[in-house]
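Residues and backbone
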Amino acid sequence: MVKRPDPAEISPAERRRLRVRSAILDAAERVFSRDGEDGLSIRRLADEIDYSPAAIYKYFGSKEELLEELKEAFFEKILDQVDEVMGGDRPFLERARACLVTYVRTALEKPHHYAAAFSGIPEAPHPRARTWSEFSAANKGQAFLHLVDLVCEGQETGAFRRDIDPVTAAKSAWASCHGLAMLMAHLPSFPSMIDEPDGPDRAAFLDIHADHILRGLRATGPAADPSSGDPRDG
């Protein structure tokens, strides 16, 4: 795992630099949400926050670098939130559910930032090859490895099936959560699609969705560990 610096160890000058970078990224998110990726430019961003383009170029060398940093900033937030819910002594499946739910909730806190994190459709299957070490060093890779570690922990404790490759299982769980996050971001009324007075609200639906993912991974029979069981199981 990448060790992030302790805030107490950051110098005043570095804190000022980080504040300016954060202000630029916040403005980039606003411009992106309003004008889309094509409408985001260094000049338009400079107008948004009353900076000169030259001042922004001191922090970001290009629009592409800025977009990449915007994506990394979102996944850093994911890491912070997941680290918080995965700590403690709660039963494994409670922590696992919290991890899945937290991903979607964090995405929906700033849906435009989340959209920016997955902006653009590459023209080729692999437009920029990355080594595993490069991927795992990035916040996006760290967030994915958290999910892989979660699957591995479930297999080691007997809560999850051991016949599934952990990376493949993590990809499947992430794809499911990503799909729900995008659906809720684009359809703010979801899960309500018609007048459903007795239908679940968003929080309840997120729990149901996470339970479905976990049930697909659960071990059955004697291999399952009752001590890590789902408190909702009868």
